[in-house]
Design brief:
Blueprint lengths: L1 H5 L11 H33 L14 H6 L3
């Protein structure tokens, strides 16, 4: 590999600039926040189902506006 590098037959690795690295970091952080939110929603739904409150069969979004709006009806 050293011989290939000396003769210029290897391409240099791509190193993104600072803006690109920061953007990628933000995208990864956003994805982790979304995944954590999904885990929490699933946990809440599981606890509610354990209490024989099955909102999942009635509403599509357990923590959405329709779910909390329906209890006032």
């Amino acid at each position: 590999m050293a011989k290939l590098l000396r003769h210029g037959l290897l391409k240099a690795s791509y190193i993104p600039d600072r803006n690109q690295r920061e953007f990628r970091e933000l995208v990864r952080y956003r994805r982790s926040i979304i995944e954590e939110r999904s885990r929490q929603i699933n946990r809440i739904q599981k606890v509610l189902e354990g209490l024989n409150i099955t909102l999942g069969s009635v509403v599509s979004d357990v923590l959405g506006f329709g779910c909390f709006g329906s209890r006032n009806a």
